[in-house]
């Protein structure tokens, strides 16, 4: 499947309200509104279980891909992060948001390792929670903000697709809210995200190739 076709299928679904139980019928991603809890309360960090069976998002994402990304890639981020911060008790007390939001406080010798692996852990922990089946269109305040910011929900999808398509190599297309409360869409390389800027995550597309 071509990259553009995949993104259009993924975004042909919708974003929804926070903390709705994942209903597994036809794979469609949902985005939580602001106010998400911390992705973790501090180390040692653990691999969160998938909130659905690996084949639940087919035909959009197959079971093999889900298992590979969760059981191998995500697990590696968790293990590498725990290994990096093991000699630093103060860092072990911090959440991934706190680590990524203040990288200057992380010792230089492990800063890149923490950035990459805390980023990978945070991004994928959020991703598993936002893919649901079926998804829902945004409601209430978030729906109005999307209309006000992007013109319409359809134009928001177009902007997300354009952002993801513009990423060379691996990275993420992120939909987030900045410190001033403004919604934005922005590409990030590798496992970077708006968490580096202190902005909460709303919805991300993992561009893995």
Residues in helix, %: 40-55%
CATH superfamily: Iron/manganese superoxide dismutase, C-terminal domain
Radius of gyration equals 17 Å
Tally of DSSP helical segments: 7
What's the CATH architecture name?
A: 3-Layer(bab) Sandwich
Largest beta sheet, briefly? 3 strands, antiparallel
Q: Could you say which overall geometry the principal axes of the C-alpha atoms support?
A: globular
Q: From the helix content, strand content and strand pairing, which structural class follows?
A: alpha+beta
Overall pLDDT score: 83
Report strand order across the widest sheet.
Answer: 4-3-5
Which runs of at least 5 residues are low in confidence (pLDDT < 50)? 12-37
Top CATH class = Alpha Beta
What is the number of strand segments?
A: 5
Strand percentage: 5-15%
Give the H and E element order.
HEHHHHEHHEEE
Task: Please provide a written account of the structure.
By secondary structure, this protein is of the alpha+beta class. The chain has one domain (3-34, 61-207): 3-Layer(bab) Sandwich (minor pseudopilin epsh fold), CATH 3.55.40. Helices cover 43% and strands 12% of the residues. It is built from seven helices and five strands, in the order αβααααβααβββ. The protein has helices spanning 3-11, 63-85, 89-92, 96-101, 108-130, 140-150, 153-165; strands spanning 28-29, 131-132, 171-177, 183-189, 201-207. Strands 4-3-5 form a three-stranded antiparallel β-sheet. A two-stranded antiparallel sheet has the order 1-2. β3 and β4 (183-189) form a beta hairpin. α6 packs across α7 (153-165). The longest helix has 23 residues, at 63-85. The protein starts with a helix and ends with a strand.
């Amino acid at each position: 499947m071509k990259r553009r076709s995949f993104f259009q299928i993924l975004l042909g679904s919708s974003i929804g309200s926070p903390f709705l139980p994942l209903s597994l019928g036809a794979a469609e991603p949902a985005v939580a509104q602001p106010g998400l809890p911390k992705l973790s309360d501090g180390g040692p960090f653990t691999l969160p279980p998938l909130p659905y069976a690996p084949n639940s998002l087919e035909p959009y994402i197959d079971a093999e891909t889900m298992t590979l990304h969760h059981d191998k890639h995500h697990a590696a981020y968790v293990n590498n992060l725990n290994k990096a911060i093991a000699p630093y008790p103060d860092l072990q007390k911090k959440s991934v948001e706190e680590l990524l939001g203040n990288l200057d406080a992380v010792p230089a010798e492990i800063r890149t390792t923490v950035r990459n692996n805390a980023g990978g852990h945070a991004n994928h922990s959020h991703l598993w929670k936002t893919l649901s089946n079926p998804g829902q269109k945004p409601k209430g305040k978030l729906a109005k903000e999307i209309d006000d910011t992007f013109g319409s929900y359809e134009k928001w999808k177009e902007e997300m697709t354009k952002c993801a398509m513009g990423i060379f190599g691996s990275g993420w297309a992120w939909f987030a809210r900045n410190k001033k409360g403004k919604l934005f869409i922005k590409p990030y390389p590798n496992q970077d995200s708006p968490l580096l800027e202190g902005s909460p995550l709303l919805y991300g597309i993992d561009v893995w190739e």
